[in-house]
Amino acid sequence: MSIVVRTLSEHVFDIVRERIVTGQLGTEAPIRQDALAAQLGVSKIPVREALARLEQEGLLTSLANRGYFVKPMSAARRDEIFELRLAIEPAAAARAALRATAADHEAARAAFEALDTAAGENPADVAVRNRQFHTALVRPGERALTTQLVERLSILAERYVVAHLQPAGRGTRAHQEHWEMLEAWIAGDAPAVERLLAHHIQATLDDLREQPDA
Fold first, then answer.
1. What is the dihedral of CA 57, 77, 127, 97, to 10 degrees?
2. What single string gives the DSSP state of each residue in 155-201?
3. Lower CB density within 10 Å: C or N end of the chain?
């Protein structure tokens, strides 16, 4: 695939992912590739590539002779995603805290600041920045598979993160929890990182379980 087509595919991917995360695309009707290509002013090739990638990411599902559909949010799927995060992410971030360099600290601070800036603006951007922050806390652990799993789970969690932040006050609490995690992580306090991150993920899941629309 050429660089131009790949760039267009990434552009389409970002647009469709944002529409999925923000609920602009429903789960009932199939995504019409020809209509989407015409709307975005591109050929069907980058559209097909983007939709295939979104299916790999777990946001779409394809049905024979019917096309691509947005994978529905569900309580069972939500619980599985967040329970897997609880099983993997806190320990991984704690490990990374003990191995992080000054450059890693700067990268994590930058990710936190980008998330803070995005808060209250575009919900899809907040979801992306949230994922990047959480991944930044894990990457220095130098376990590529673990980092990939954390990032993949964060992608799958994005719609639930957006839903979680809708009630007033949730964004402020998330900001404070992220800041406390970052401070402990930079200090190399692995037990505190593991405890704070586990609490953060569990509290988010508990809140979502109480929301009828999440």
1. -90
2. HHHHHHHHHHT-STTHHHHHHHHHHHHHHHHHTT-HHHHHHHHHHHH
3. N
Structural domains of the chain ordered from first start = 3-70 (1.10.10.10), 75-210 (1.20.120.530)
Report the distance separating Cα 86 and Cα 91, nearest Å.
9
Give CA separation, 163 vs 118, 132, 153, 207, in Å.
Answer: 16, 18, 16, 10
Rg of the chain (C-alpha set):
18
C-alpha 78/C-alpha 160 separation (Å) is: 7
**CB neighbours (10 Å) of residue 5?**
14
Beta-carbon contacts of residue 119 (< 8 Å; ≥ 6 apart):
126, 171, 175
How does pLDDT run across 18-68, given as a tens digit for each residue?
A: 888 878 888 888 898 899 999 999 989 999 999 999 998 888 999 887 889
Question: Nearest to residue 160, comparing CAs of 91, 66, 84?
Answer: 84
Model confidence, pTM? 0.84
DSSP, res 73: P
Strands 60-63 and 67-70: antiparallel
